[in-house]
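This entry is retained here.
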Amino acid sequence: MAQVISWNCHGLVHNIDEVKNLIYQHMPACFALQETYLHTSQNPNFHNYSLIRKDHESTVKISGGVALLVSHQYPYTIINLHTSLQAVAVRIHISTLITICTVYLPPRETLAQTSLSSLINQLPTPFIVIGDFNGHSPLWGCTDNNRRGEQIESLISDFSLCLLNNGEHTYFHQPTKNFYAIDLAISTPSLVPLYNFWVSNDLHNSDHFPIFLSTTNQQNINTIHTIRRYIHDKADWAGFTHLAEITRGMVQGEINTALANITTTILNAVNATIPQTSGKRKNKKPWWNQECQEAKKKQRKAWDTFRRYPTTENLINFKRAKSFARKVRRRSQKESWVKYVSSISYNTPSKLVWKKAKRAMGLNTEYPIACLTENGQTISDIFDI
């Protein structure tokens, strides 16, 4: 599990299954994406996540683009950035209130140092800037140096920032079969002791490895995966009415004490008479079967072999295994969808039809919306669909 993930996905729509799989495995508070290649008409949907994006406008072809997927379980507010750079940012309350900004800096664009400085000046502290910088420097694990790397070094020095990278390679250049570290996580000094940096060993159908930030004191990460909700249809309302009775003695005295007494009484009554969901995750991929598992296993084995011995033959074997695994997944998805749709017939109750239709559209009966006001207060509401 990681609180923040960053990945150059080389096409969000093309690799949407990989993104959803990473979300399912790690349940991040924030998922930063680069090179999303999104058209303005494309609006991919992610259950329990809001998509905050900045598409790259180009007259030649769709390229670049950045996005943040922010979990509804964490209060947040969007930061309006005044910059020509491909960047978006949010202010989010995870374990503390921090700013997360994702950036994509194209490798062949001339970049002014003032543009980077202006972006940093707009970010409330403490912050993390994470993404694909396309900068080479021995400071973060490259064997060479380039102009972009020198600019990033100057940025870190000018603003007294810290680099969270640990030297692991984050990018595979297929033509030369070389590995580089060009995906960076840069933060203010106060956040350095709070986060661990690590890199996936799987490309997930891109040429960049996802990078992860997890808290240093993270424990029991598999105990709770979703918010527990009250099941109102199974509530004992008679018992609730009896236990939630407000007496005259509760409201006498100081107002803060009276308010605390009333709140405690109501919450105790709720917990005693209204059951809750288990909080365990449901299977998000009903199409995933043993054949998919075996194909994925062979793909990873081929990749491990190529990574240790980067020969042309091993690269071809990896590509074949990757193509076969994608073919198996798509076939399984299609068969699962046909089976799901076929379960709806003329004698299916209308309530069940609408439930299946909502599930097909990725909708739940209810979901939390969380955001932050400008002064940092939390607003959390539950809307019925």
Q: What stands out?
A: Helices lie at 16-26, 113-121, 147-158, 237-243, 255-273, 290-308, 312-342, 350-360. The chain has three domains: 4-215, 233-276, 290-360.
